[in-house]
Amino acid sequence: MTYKTLDDIGDVAGTRILVREDLNVPMADGRVSDDTRLRATVATVSELADRGAIVLVLAHFGRPKGNPVPSMSLALVTAAYADVLGRPVRFVDWDGAADAVATMRLGDIAVLENTRFFAGEERNDPELVERFAALGDLYVNDAFSAAHRAHASTEGLARQLPAFAGRAMEAELGALEKALGRPEHPVAAVVGGAKVSTKLDVLKHLVGRVDHLIIGGGMANTFLAARGVKVGRSLCEHDLTGTADEIMDAADRAGCTVHLPYDVVVATEFQPDPATRTINVHEVAADEMILDIGPAAVEALGDVLKNCRTLVWNGPLGAFETPPFDAATVALARTAAALTGDGSLVSVAGGGDTVAALNQAGVGDAFTFVSTAGGAFLEWMEGRELPGVAALFR
Fold it and tell me: Can you give the pLDDT at residue 381?
């Protein structure tokens, strides 16, 4: 089975289309401080409006826990959204929504109030699904970032109305298929972050799917400790060294090479630009913390990527938010971007920290695909079924 896209809808002039988007943007002083997610919706919403549809945008904003919270009203986002789209956008409250929609004309766009103002949204309540569905004729899911939750506006509507994937969803699914669905081998995965415990399922899934597993961030310290390396005061989950051993054993059985750093950057204090040492991983003093991968290891990892055809990346290699501990992440990201640019590597990255790290390296636009999804991207890397995506395959 496959899913339908906007190419399969046909003539939509005058059709009311409920479009699930991600408008959950950061705010500062009452204004949208980062419109990345708004811009990601433009292709789908503009195309449908240009084709004469009445476009009704569904989205959540914050965590109101099933109650109307004025500070989480999508009315606060509507003006910025209109600026991004370059066309008028109406805001429609749930009270009188049917009457408001009835007055809309071909090509009009409206943002409906926060779906999470209803307690039934996160419960995927059938009555709420019917209430949403009564406003539209067709449903389009364009919010991969919300697809890991079986909510009324993500999974329920896809089963209530004829359902299609929007352009952003289509691009995301296509990129993920290239990365781990049917990738070209050899495949490398970079998995970083603070704790092994947050990415256990990711690591267990990947060792059977990739040829090279590059482990960075604080979680690398747990794997080093499992190998008998003394990591000093580094962030390390010593209670999970046995699990780390199990993952490395599983990788050996699957023919997956696990790459851990053999030179590291250490400091006795974690703050911007402290005194540092670049040392062999076996030379970490008791009062030192490993805060980044060293240059020799980064160079070796670059050579690994040069022999790969596919890369999937989630998480930084070091404490990239604090210089100079961003050096390894920046260097390897730039190598991956260069390989992508010359056509030798398909590179797919995702997750909030990952996007920030790639932007810091100046290569946010140089990867094959960068997903802004957080939880959904992580659950996909774990090999889990995403309800909002699965509902489109019918």
Answer: 87
